[in-house]
Amino acid sequence: MTTSAARPATTQSGDPRLAGLIEAARALQPRTVALRRQVHKHPELGLRLPQTQAAVLHALEGLPLEVTTGKSTDSVVGVLHGARPGPTVLLRADMDALPLTEQTGCAFASEVHGTMHACGHDTHVAMLASAARLLCARKEALNGHVVFMFQPGEEGHHGAKHMIDEGVLGASGLLANKAFALHITSTVRSGVITSRPGPIMAAADVFRVRVIGRGGHASQPHKALDPVPAAAAMVGALQTMITRRVNASEPAVITVAKIAAGTTSNIIPEIAELEGTIRTFSETTRTLVHTEAKRICEHTAAAYGCSATFQIERGYPITANDPEVAANVLDLASSVLGSRYSEPMIDPMMGAEDFSYVTRQIPGTMAFLGACPPSIGLDEAAPNHSNRVLFDEAAMEHGVAMHAAFALDSLR
């Protein structure tokens, strides 16, 4: 939806390099909205996004960029060489959607049943494409290079790792010195940039437990080894483990999200299965929770006369912002957008991000862009990953300006 969210009329910064960024982003807003809606209507999942890739390539046509596409993914990389030699900055936008059926009622709602841009990656694509156009118009002010990273497969497919393996961090000919990613959110006031130093998003791992008993008739449990009570006991034991084995100053979450056992009411099954997620903000805590969860599940199973196998599928690492870069992003937001649009983020989020693969190799920062529609209260807004989520498109002007400001400030 498009609204007229409160925003500064002119750029606040006294730095001449940053002058007029809001005005330039606002002039590009029709392009930004059009691309966002095009991508939103045709969402794609995973690493192969042919329609989205084509839309990005079309948006970048005619710009003075070196454009390449990926091999293992449908990624797009654009490189802008500034007027003079210098370092390289990387700006990233993810492009994939989620397996949801949209129920927003938007005029530009998804035309693909069961697939929706519920995390706002369509806005990320549109903002970065417009930022590329804005920066191309100001290439004479750049002492260095800008890499525009359009990435598939953020939603669990490790798309950033694929692109890193194919050389995106050195796409300009030099290893990037800084990186920036912006993630839209429906639960923060529209236009606000918020970030923090250090961990900002969690490591995310999947655990799977298989409890093995001995099947039998449901009327004679003493002649069987019922895995269901053992599995049920594990759920409570895992929660107790978090509160009793993990340092209270170290956030950690373990959630059993799936329980499966049995086929009908009068059969004790032989197998019960649990599946869930583990979220942590330090490698020490991550290792501890993995070890303790395995021990508890195996020993609980044994206490019920059963056995258990425990598997961990390691997911995205912790996303940790470089403190200096994070502080600079908030300062830029205050200078370019106005102080009311720059807010330090107090607590990290338990969500996970594969931008973590980038920040493990080069100093970088992820920031969030608020886009709660002004007509909806923050407490009432459907969150990201909801099939009813709405984003205020007016906020995208701030996103475009922030991408451009980050590059201009880094390559001064």
Please outline what is shown here.
By secondary structure, the chain is of the alpha/beta class.
Largest sheet: number of strands, sense, barrel closure: 8 strands, mixed
Total helical elements? 10
List the uncertain runs: none
Beta content comes to: 25-35%
Broad structural category: alpha/beta
The dominant shape is elongated
N-to-C SSE string, H for helix and E for strand = HHHEEEHEHEEEEEHEEEHEEHEHEH
Distance between the termini: 36 Å
Spatial extent as radius of gyration: 24 Å
Strand ordering within the main sheet: 1-2-4-3-5-16-6-15
Helix content: 25-40%
DSSP, total strands: 16
pLDDT averaged residue by residue: 95
Question: What does this protein structure show overall?
Answer:
- The structure is a single chain.
- By secondary structure, the chain is of the alpha/beta class.
- Helix content is 31%, strand content 26%.
- It is built from ten helices and 16 strands.
- The strands form four sheets. An eight-stranded mixed sheet has the order 1-2-4-3-5-16-6-15, with helices on both faces. A four-stranded antiparallel sheet has the order 10-12-8-13, with helices on one face. A two-stranded antiparallel ribbon has the order 7-14.
- A hairpin with a 6-residue loop joins strand 1 and strand 2.
- The radius of gyration is 24 Å and the shape is elongated.
- The two termini are 36 Å apart.
